[in-house]
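A favour, since you know our structure tokens better than I do. Just paste the record in under my message, thanks.
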Amino acid sequence: MKNLKVLILMVFSIFILVSCGGGDSKVKTIDFIISDDSLEGGAMAKAVERYNNSQDEIKINLIELPYDSVRAKVKTMVAGGKAPALMRTSNIDEFETVLADLSDTVNPADFTDKMEENLMDGKFLGVPLNLTVNGLIYNKTLFDKAGVKVPDSQDNIWTWDEFVQALNTVKEKNSLKYGMVMDFSQNRYQTMLYQFGGRIFDENGDIVVDQPDSIRTLDYFIKLHKDKVMPDDVWLGGEDASNLFKTGTIPAYYSGSWKINEYKNDIKDFEWGIAYMPKEKNRSSIAGGNFLVAFTKSPDLEEAKKFIKWFYQDENYKQYCEDGAYISGKLSVHPSYAYGQEFFDILDNEIVNTPELSPNDKKMIKKYKAAGNMMRDYIVYAIQGERTPVQAMTELKEKWSELKK
């Protein structure tokens, strides 16, 4: 009798399990590789949790790796025939041949056109995930003490000469040695290059750094060092520009949107903010950031596309941007930030006013990376006086031409 009761209970349990869909037997788990999510507030982990709870067919397994490990790990997985379903990356060019065209999943026209390295051979290989934007961070405490007000509207933005004059006033009134710092980065210098009307490539992909606007940019950059507006220590000595700004002795810093979250917690001794960058021929920033990609060789491609469709619904993507304090890559999504809303508004305005010079250069992403790093080296030669600006940029063009052969 006892055995009969056990048998009946087992049969009943199996009936309940089958009638409910077999427990988790229908759930398909797919891998999503990402880096630094914990450091950035876990915005993607929160989005994945919401997605997993919203349906019972697909479970996203979020794998967080150190930033320096992601590319090597995924390349190994792809080579071994075990590509993940999804990845967050800023290096689309390295995976171009194995990425899925996502133009059948989301509408490319819904997203910013300032990050064109994701458009290759007519394929939409990555959906803009979170934008980074170059901008001007300033020490509001020092500016206020000097009685200098930064432009409060896009209608009264400083020229570069007006900006330098303002920096010199802040320097003098506060007895400071320097007026600004800029990261040792071709990306930051190129923001200035585009503002002066220069560029790296023309529309045919030929390098044009020896043109007058590019030479004038370098002339001006050297003068900033000679006149002690900028210290030599960053571009010539390897000093960290951010650390210098955080000392409270540097009025302005050319960096980017990623510093907002960092400085919110790190800077306690003075008030800081985001100001409009100066202009010359143009207003310009540079849009960088990450893309959401899927792999053609993954057996979970269709499930990956379902997640992408869900993720980029306006309400879901907006929540992600707000959780991570990210700039939206989708034109219809305008996040409301718990901190620094006015800063993000200025950076949004900067990228809207960025000319096609920058996206055109980034469209040629493989050339862009190599040429950009080389350009930084030749800028150093010019600052040191080893070459004139014309010599530096002419030699850079010649070296680049040799690499193309």
User: Anything to note?
Assistant: Residues 365-384 form the longest helix (20 residues). The longest strand covers residues 127-139.
